Amino acid sequence: MKFWLLLGLLLLHEALEDVAGQHSPKNKRPKEQGENRIKPTNKKAKPKIPKVKDRDSTDSTAKSQSIMMQAMGNGRFQRPAATVSLLAGQTLELRCKGSKVEWSYPAYLDTFKDSRLTVKQSERYGQLTLVNSTAADTGEFSCWEQLCNGYICRRDEARTGSTYIFFTEKGELFVPSPSYFDVVYLNPDRQAVVPCRVTVPSAKVTLHREFPAKEILANGTDIVYDMKRGFVYLQPHSDHQGVVYCKAEAGGKSQISVKYQLLYVEVPSGPPSTTILASSNKVRGGDDISVLCTVLGEPDVEVEFRWLFPGQKDERPVTIQDTWRLIHRGLGHTTRISESVLTVEDFETIDAGYYICTAQNLRGQTTVAATVELS
């Protein structure tokens, strides 16, 4: 009897060990307090990427609107959109935060020193006010804060503001032009613009050749239309030259722009191509002499001249006259000739020596010299 009792107890013990082995794997260390309380899951989640503020962000629109506000009336201000439409005659008031704010606005307002425009600087913001607005005021208005270190200032690219404003005026679909005929130069190495800008953003604008009469399509490859600039020739060539005009349609009305003469130019870009020539290299005492400095260049690139001459240190009186003109060299090629003439009357010993002319444009400068002796 005892034998069977002992055998039953032994079998029961082995059965209990088998059950315990199914739930407690072998060699598992005891869990410490606070360890592995989060249950693993098979759910997938997108990793969160932390947002980083970048002062040099390529989002120029957000950056350009950062400091500009527009007065809306009743003491309210709001940040202007990239483009804003106002009725001609309305007052425009813009403010930009900053203790030293600079402004840019349509060149038309600067050209005529327009008294309708006022710019003021207060302790905390700059203010631009334009009264009695007209369609001709349509254009880009922008501001930026200046960062100064002593007398040296630079533009803070992180604190700017900009908006393009259309001033809509009855009977004026195009921004008025100061002339009835204008010239557009076509350079093979840069874009050319026929400036048919509109005052109504929704206007449909087309480009037309006068002779032979036909519409010139803005195909997006050679020519594109930008309502803030006009028709842009991306790669001008000689076939584009001729007389063109624009036509705008909006609200059941249409209007024709001024005419534009497109002239093809084939002059290399760069510092002035300069020559110098004296009326004589040997002069007798008492004679008059002239020294001519000539530049051949692009029609729309201005040239400035500077002179050094032998009698300069003795304050010798001379006459200097600067002129320029356009010449057509066939096949529609147009060149600008800029000239500066220095004249010395009653030639003396102190006038003998080197006459040095320096011609400068936006791309650089060139210096040439001629020698004049007393015979």
TrEMBL record:
Domain Ig-like as annotated: residue spans: 272-375
Basic residues bias locations: 40-50
Keyword Disulfide bond listed: yes
Annotated InterPro entries: Ig-like_dom, Ig-like_dom_sf, Ig-like_fold, Ig_sub, PDGFRL
PROSITE patterns reported in the protein's UniProt record: IG_LIKE (PS50835)
Region called Disordered, residue ranges: 20-63
Keyword Disulfide bond among record annotations: yes
Localization, UniProt: Secreted
Cellular component, GO annotation: extracellular region
MF (Gene Ontology): platelet-derived growth factor receptor activity
Highest taxon of source: Eukaryota
Signal peptide bounds: 1-21
SUPFAM superfamilies according to UniProt: Immunoglobulin (SSF48726)
Record keywords: Disulfide bond, Glycoprotein, Immunoglobulin domain, Repeat, Secreted, Signal
A Pfam family assignment: Ig_3
Main location as per UniProt: secreted
Subunit structure: Forms a complex composed of PDGFRL, TNK2 and GRB2.
The protein, known as: Platelet-derived growth factor receptor-like protein
